């Protein structure tokens, strides 16, 4: 089993692929002032943890869930069904089809980078359209060595100022930002920890490295989670 296959096996059946919760989504949607008839792109939707809340936010609109990993899209479509209000599309989230009032990206922007994502999305925003994304960053100036070593492979991890600078350099104006609360991490790590325990009980050797990595990530957050976090950013193209 390849590392990628082991990752997707570990995450199979989980509601979400990263930190997030209903309160954080509600705060962001209220700040972004999405119209009731708005068209929303859930970019890098994963299995669709946020899709139902996004649909509720645009009761007269439409949500397009998009992810490069087709099994997530198939799972989402099977669970929620697709119709005029919900589309599920397998593809590169930087290259959606059509125009949107909001592009929502919960924790998936790191896969392509802030600059590349915003460059791709800009042409797909309606006048007045906005983006909301969350990205991992340092919350303190001198994070513990253990945390720095663990996240060394995370591409270009920056602090809040660095993340915001990237947004502005891409030609966007930041409307609001805040760190995701602990509840958002617990909503992700609780089910992930249970999934790890379940798979350990099955004693599948090919998953050992993935299970150890997942356990190490959860343990690190319990020890040093105050030193890093996901910054949630709401932005719009600058005039």
Question: What's a concise summary of this model?
Answer:
The protein has 239 residues and is α/β, with parallel strands linked by helices. The protein is 42% helix and 24% strand.
Report on the structure:
The chain has 239 residues and is of the alpha/beta class. It contains nine helices and eight strands. Helix 5 links the parallel strand 4 and strand 5 (125-138). It is globular.
Task: Note the gap between the termini.
Answer: 49 Å
Shape: globular
Question: How much is the radius of gyration in Å?
Answer: 18 Å
Q: What fraction, in percent, of the residue positions are helical?
A: 40-55%
The SS-based structural class is alpha/beta
Q: SSE order in H/E notation?
A: HHEHEHEEHEHEHEHHE
Strand content: 15-25%
Please, what is the average pLDDT? 94
Number of helices: 9
Runs in which pLDDT lies below 50 for 5 or more consecutive residues are none
Question: Main beta sheet, described?
Answer: 8 strands, mixed
């Amino acid at each position: 089993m390849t590392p990628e296959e082991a990752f997707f096996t570990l995450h199979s059946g989980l509601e979400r692929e990263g930190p997030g919760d209903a309160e954080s989504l509600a705060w962001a949607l209220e700040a972004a002032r999405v119209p009731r008839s708005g068209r929303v792109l859930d970019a890098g939707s994963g299995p669709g943890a946020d899709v139902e809340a996004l649909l509720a936010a645009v009761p007269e609109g439409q949500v397009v869930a998009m992810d490069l990993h087709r099994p997530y899209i198939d799972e989402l479509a099977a669970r929620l069904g697709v119709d005029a209000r919900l589309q599920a599309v397998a593809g590169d989230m930087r290259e959606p089809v059509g125009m949107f009032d909001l592009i929502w990206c919960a924790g998936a922007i790191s896969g392509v980078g802030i600059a590349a994502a915003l460059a791709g999305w800009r042409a797909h925003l309606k006048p007045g359209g906005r983006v909301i994304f969350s990205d991992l960053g340092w919350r303190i100036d001198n994070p513990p060595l253990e945390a720095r070593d663990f996240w060394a492979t995370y591409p270009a991890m920056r602090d809040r100022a660095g993340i915001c600078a990237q947004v502005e350099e891409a030609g966007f104006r930041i409307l609001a930002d805040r760190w995701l609360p602990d509840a958002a991490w617990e909503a992700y790590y609780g089910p992930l920890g249970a999934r790890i325990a379940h798979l350990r009980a099955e004693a599948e050797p090919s998953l050992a490295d993935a299970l150890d990595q997942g356990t190490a990530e959860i343990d690190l957050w319990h020890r040093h989670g105050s030193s890093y976090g996901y910054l949630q950013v709401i932005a719009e193209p600058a005039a």
